[in-house]
Amino acid sequence: MRLDYVTIFPDFFAPLALSLPGKAAAKGLVAFGVHDLRSFTHDRHRTVDDTPYGGGAGMVMKPEPWGEAFDALLPADTHADADAGRPTVVFTTPSGEPFDQALAAELATREHLVFACGRYEGIDQRVIDHARERAEVREISLGDYVLNGGEVAALAITEAVVRLLPGFMGNAESLVEESHSAETGGLLEYPVYTKPPTWRGREVPEVLRSGDHGKVARWRHEQAVRRTAERRPDLLAPSVLDDGTPIVRAVPADAAELLVLQRACWVQEALANDSLDIPALHESLDDVRAWLTEWDTWVVRRAGRLVAAVRGRLEGEDTWDIGRIMVAPDLQGSGLGRVLLEHIQQVAPASVTSYVLFTGAGSVRNQRMYRKAGFRLRPNLPAPAGAVVLTKTVHRPDTRRTNL
Ligand code: JD8
After folding, report:
1. H helices within 53-141, ranges in order?
2. What's the start-to-end Cα distance of the chain, in Å?
3. pLDDT in tens, the chain (404 residues)
4. N or C, which end of the chain has less CB nearby within 10 Å?
5. Separation of 1 CA from ligand 1 center, angstroms?
């Protein structure tokens, strides 16, 4: 990948030679070019700004130097073959599209990025309009706060993009477990610890020293979910049903209604399986409260009534145990169960490679729904009495977006 920067403060990009980008350049993964906008002026004062048409405070960056900069860096005409690495010009601006990990992953698919770093009150709008005629243009904001220029944003975007380039991160694995990465379903990172086991009277959580990878994976997922719920509930944005009804994380206060819904649904299971010997049927309110702290549980409310639920948790390091898919009897057959089954698969942690669930041997309707969803009966796997086990292998879509 080639990255060019046009700026009136070229020294701002000295850090490119350091640390991360520096290593990438050494590995031949990237090439950088920093260009002083004033080198594209011709007057004694090397003028790059002038007063704003329409009046107002501050100065605006003149179009001519930018035009000449683009003449030097971009193909002349717009009809340059898109696939042949048509450059992408990134104007960093507070009025741009928000920069996030998905956009970083998208920009990492480009062959040539040209960062146009403005100053003063901004760049004459005709420069952006002109650039669109000869390159892909992205106007990108680093965040909802005001900086004095575009250089800091260009550096931050560079770091987020270059580290995603194939062959850059020593172990690509570590990219998987990161906050905001598509792989972690957008969860924030879990807390991390290293030696010594005790520091200033503080212990490393016992589970991390247990050697039980399954327990560790489940603890880390629970910590990531808890931290995200506390700090970034927006990242836990509920998915919604076709009619806009949200699927939200259960809270302890849902326990009583969950118990009622569970009893109603498992009476039907008892009838379908001609047996009352079904654990869910015998659980108490405290049992429900207890498993709500151990399982990722999601619920659906209609007109305030809790009408459906599902839960999931890690079994070992890479198996997602799905259960308690419940739909109020009066709403069964409406597709709610199918949607919740799809949802609980989507929210499974990145490390998961297979799903497992079980249902009554006599629960033919449930089994049909699971088979249609890609689950397969596994008579060779141990199942609770009177139940059958079904599993499904995880297939992750290739989340990278290209500009083709
Ligand atoms: C480019 C000039 C300063 C902005 C008058 C202050 C990005 N997230 C972000 N915040 N601010 C910028 C940014 C600010 C810039 C320029 C980016 C060029 N300024 C201007 C408008 C108000 N001054 C940014 N990315």
Report:
1. 63-73, 101-107, 125-131
2. 17
3. 999 999 999 999 998 877 667 777 777 889 999 999 999 999 999 999 999 999 999 999 999 999 999 999 998 765 555 555 789 999 999 999 999 999 999 999 999 999 999 999 999 999 999 999 999 999 999 999 999 999 999 999 999 999 998 877 665 556 665 666 655 667 889 999 999 999 999 999 999 999 998 889 888 888 888 888 888 878 776 677 878 888 988 989 999 999 999 999 999 999 999 999 999 999 999 999 999 989 999 999 998 999 999 999 999 888 999 999 999 999 998 899 999 999 999 888 878 899 999 999 999 999 999 999 999 999 999 998 899 999 999 876 654 444 44
4. C
5. 26
Sole residue written with tokens 């649904």: 265
Whether 122 lines ligand 1, by a CB cut-off of 6 Å, is: yes
Contacts of 125 (CB under 8 A, 6+ apart): none
Q: Is the CB of 149 under 6 A from ligand 1?
A: yes
Residue 189 domain-assigned?
no
- Report how many domains make up the chain: 3
Same domain, 162 and 294: no
Residue with CA nearest ligand 1 atom 5 = 121
**Residue 226 domain boundaries:** 198-235
Asked if residue 93 has its Cβ within 6 Å of ligand 1, the reply is yes
Does residue 385 sit in helix, strand or coil?
coil
From the CA of 149, how far away is ligand 1's center (Å)?
5
Q: Supply the pTM of this predicted model.
A: 0.75
142 is in an annotated binding site: yes
Do 133 and 255 lie in a common domain? no
Distance CA 351, CA 180 (A): 15
330 annotated binding-site participant: no
Q: Which residue has the tokens 């327990």?
A: 215
